[in-house]
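Figure caption, in words: inputs first, then the predicted bound structure.
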Amino acid sequence: MTEMRRVTAIRNGTVVDHIPAGHALQVIQMLRIDMTRTTPVSLVMNVPSDKLGRKDVLKVEDRELNQEELDRLALIAPTASIAIIRNHAVAEKLKVELADDLVNIANCSFSNCITKNAREPLPQRLCVISRDPLEVRCYYCGSGQDLEEIIENII
Ligand SMILES: [Zn+2]
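Bound structure (zinc ion present):
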């Protein structure tokens, strides 16, 4: 098995550590990092972790994640720990917390949901019913949303 290791120290940006192994690409999607642009992203997958067995680590240069972006991450990487790096040093440590309500994070997947037909635009609102196993439902129509659908429907 090839071990892919490209751990580069970054000067400014965000390190997302303790991502469950194999989920780093979903994290990139969730963060809406545009891979066609020039943001340098380092990705380390499947490294040994005391906490998780195996983990992925993601480093995004010149970008500091905010709380709203962290809320998105909580869906796929509730164990993630975040470090904001400024001038090569850890300036802030942040935790990921899964909110009970996910407002304007992803569109409901149900095609007849009122959010798609309302005269007045409604905020998208998904409710976290259960965390383990993850169960998420649309606040308006009650449709269950699986993780794949949520990722697909990220706003
Ligand atoms: Zn709905």
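The two ends are 36 Å apart (CA to CA).
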